[in-house]
Amino acid sequence: MLDKNGIAKRIAKEVQDGYYVNLGIGIPTLVANYVRDDIEVEFQSENGVLGMGPFPFEGEEDADIINAGKQTITTLPGASFFDSATSFSMIRGQHVDLTILGAMEVSEDGDIANWKIPGKMVKGMGGAMDLVASAENIIVAMMHTNRAGASKLLKHCSLPLTGVACVKKVVTNLAVMQVTPNGFKLLERAPGVSVEEIQNATEGHLIIDGDIPEMDL
Amino acid sequence: MLDKNGIAKRIAKEVQDGYYVNLGIGIPTLVANYVRDDIEVEFQSENGVLGMGPFPFEGEEDADIINAGKQTITTLPGASFFDSATSFSMIRGQHVDLTILGAMEVSEDGDIANWKIPGKMVKGMGGAMDLVASAENIIVAMMHTNRAGASKLLKHCSLPLTGVACVKKVVTNLAVMQVTPNGFKLLERAPGVSVEEIQNATEGHLIIDGDIPEMDL
Amino acid sequence: MINKKVANVQEALEGVSDNMTFMFGGFGLSGIPENSIAELVRLGTKGLKCISNNAGVDDFGLGLLLQGKQIDKMTSSYVGENDEFERQMLSGELEVELIPQGTLAERCRAAQAGFPAIYTPAGYGTEVAEGKETREFDGKMYVLEYAFKADFAFVKAWKGDAAGNLVFKGTARNFNPNMCGAAKITVAEVEELVPVGTLDPNQIHIPGIFVKRIFQGETYEKRIEQRTVRAKAN
Amino acid sequence: MINKKVANVQEALEGVSDNMTFMFGGFGLSGIPENSIAELVRLGTKGLKCISNNAGVDDFGLGLLLQGKQIDKMTSSYVGENDEFERQMLSGELEVELIPQGTLAERCRAAQAGFPAIYTPAGYGTEVAEGKETREFDGKMYVLEYAFKADFAFVKAWKGDAAGNLVFKGTARNFNPNMCGAAKITVAEVEELVPVGTLDPNQIHIPGIFVKRIFQGETYEKRIEQRTVRAKAN
Q: For the CA atoms of A133, A135, A137, A139, what is the dihedral angle to 10 degrees?
């Protein structure tokens, strides 16, 4: 079974040379730490920066240079700043190659719910609805089940949707799955996790086709 | 009767302090020469410049700094350059206060035709259709009649339209007229021109209300 | 050069009154019009409808207007980090309309550019699109969203000149340029008002035509919301 | 940093073929992609559908492609100043679609930004709107215009870097930024390719994400179409 860093590490393998990537808050942010050194990737943040670097050294924080999580950041050579409309032109116009975000629920049709729990304080969708409505390649990073042990991979989402039929891949603490027209196709098992455990934790239709390899991290 | 420079001189009186102005090719371009020195005006050109100045001194022309007439220009302090989409945001968004352009025909409803003569080579509308569709204050500068002596102020335009119900004022070699819901309201006569001459040269409905003063140039 | 410079924040805010709709630039606490907000607090203008990506924190940014119960409605994409906001929202004192962030940006830009409405894919199939017109183009579904209508836009830039030209810094740019000219009156406050002619005409982010009034803010706190750093290597 | 730099114009134009749709930046002869056009002449690519505000003059700009009868259709706002253009248009060899200049700019921007269509007031009530959908918003009429679809966009900038970041100069900017990322492949040629990291991240007109290939043009004639000057005062 993977921890959050393990999920991030596995997703980092999906990041290819030449990709522009938008990382959501939470586990997705950790992905940046595991991207191979020998490929070129640029990170976009929807508040208006392309070419994000690591956090600044202590004392070098700049209130005018933050990411969408409102964290102080730095930029790398070749970076650029731009306004919000231009930022979402990059997203809506499908210039961003890969979007990685967290979710509360994903359905076997690729629907995603990650912004609202009825009855609880709702903070808002931020840029998530724009991202999932436009991105061609969306990977969800999340735990396979919620704190109560219930599956987050469902036939239909029970929470208000963020977007419909948009998720391409899901990486959890238990497995890597591809969203196909017929449901979640199991691609890989987390180290030490059996197909049965994944099946038991998945409410949506899980396609198990042949031998399922363990992840190579 | 006015010549082209006279028309430009009269129109210059319509330019008020604090106006952003877009000048079309031809007579409108001449207006810039007659704007009072004691008011602040900025000229916009739709190819992407605000704050145009006079032509450059000989030898100082720059192929990268032109107006929409493709003429080499200079800029004044406070000027800015921008892309075409932004330029038409200024126009469509009604940030430009006054648009002055030439016309082949104007109708008593304020329709304008200035881009196409069927059967002749058509060069195109350039930015004229955007300007007339959006501008709140449009003044047409033109001769009252065409070379054949026929009126250019008509009940209905005979040529393909550039825009509908958009012209606010017309200044010709003979008169200044306001476009009203009831037709062309005669405001001023050119020096030495009688009301009768104006009436005879106007096919559209001309409203003559009381004494019509001569222009004060 | 048309002069947009006003003497101070009081003059810049002339004409604001109760029940108006305001736009505020800024993302989180970055690039917010601190001086205009402070003056609105002082004026005590009430019944405000605010368009702003976020709602500040309890004691800074739009949170200050919330403390004074000056805001009736917020149109935002994300409103966490604010206890008073949560209290007013849950009690029903404050109306909140949450919309996608890209939709927010583009509804501003539509108002600036004279477009009545836009078609965006964001929110299709979700409750955000409920009751809204939708339409298919090339097999993909879009939601019709209308241009904002606002009385004042309050923006903050890094540098500006009396002609109203603005230059922004870093990610403090965010929604600020998109809101310029998107309201009846755009008020720009800048960290530094520079002499006209010193900004490179090639490097102006917002031409002065989109700005009605400009002033240099007295002070800027520029508070950091999430200070994230790494240790210096020895 | 993702490298967009290609060795030369040949590599930059890899993949162009007959009957494609191309966008060309420039206004008149200002800011046109001179090197890409020259290479298209050399390649002899035919049956082109071109989106460009203007059509060049007889012996420069897109006029060079017209001389070689490489263009089947022009979508432009203004096409004067070109005898061969006129001859081909009147003889029916060349299809010409004239559209308002602001509509041209925004149909590019829509393609860049992922909008399927826009509502613009330009052309309403004229033959430009014939057969097109129209709609009223707030008592004003608008025409629905669709985003362009193009295979290549050829743009020209002043400076650029290997990351694809672009900076334009003066009014040579015009349609160039709006066309970046508006076609499947955007090819940018620059007068000067500068080392990555030397362009100020605050002052980049087009972030590299909108550009697929970049190269430094060999030479630029930068011809002036209307040389207007005044005499120097003594």
A: -60
Contact between chains at D197 and A80 (C-beta distance less than 8 A): no
D84: left (phi > 0), else alpha (psi -120 to 50), else beta?
Answer: alpha
Check if the beta carbon of residue D157 is closer than 8 Å to that of residue D176. yes
pLDDT digits (tens, 9 = 90+) for A98-152: 999 999 999 999 999 999 999 888 899 999 999 999 999 999 999 999 999 999 9
Q: How far apart are CA D122 and CA B129, in angstroms?
A: 5
Q: Sign of dihedral through CA atoms A29, A96, C106, D211?
A: positive
User: Is pTM, for the whole model, over 0.90?
Assistant: yes
CA gap A210, C144 in Å, rounded = 46
- As a whole number of Å, the end-to-end CA separation of chain C is 53
- Between chain A and chain D, how many beta carbons pairs sit less than 8 Å apart? 72
Tell me if residue B188 is catalytic. Answer: no
The pair of three-digit structure tokens given for residue C157, joined into one six-digit string: 């830039």
* Contact residues, chain D, for C119 at CB < 8 Å: 115-117
* A27, containing H or E segment: helix A27-31
> Distance from A15 to chain C by nearest Cα, in Å?
24
- In A127-166, the residues whose Cβ lies within 8 Å of chain D are 134
Which residue from D6, D5, D72, D71 is spatially nearest to D37, judged by alpha carbons? D71
Give how far the C-alpha of residue C56 lies from the chain's centroid of Cα atoms, to the nearest Å.
Answer: 12
For residues C26 and C172, give the distance between their C-alpha atoms in angstroms, rounded to a whole number.
Answer: 7
Secondary structure letter of residue B57 according to DSSP:
B
ipTM of model? 0.97
Cα–chain center distance at C233: 38
3-state secondary structure of A22: strand
DSSP string for residues in B170-182: EE-SSEEEEEETT
Do A189 and A212 form a contact (C-beta atoms < 8 A)? yes
| Amino acid letter, residue C148 | F
Return the beta strands (E) in chain B as ranges.
19-23, 41-45, 49-52, 75-81, 98-101, 105-107, 112-113, 138-141, 153-154, 169-171, 175-180, 183-189, 206-207
Closest CA to C125 of A132, A5, A214, A186: A132
pLDDT one-digit tens code per residue, D34-89: 999 999 999 999 999 999 999 999 999 999 999 999 999 999 999 977 889 989 99
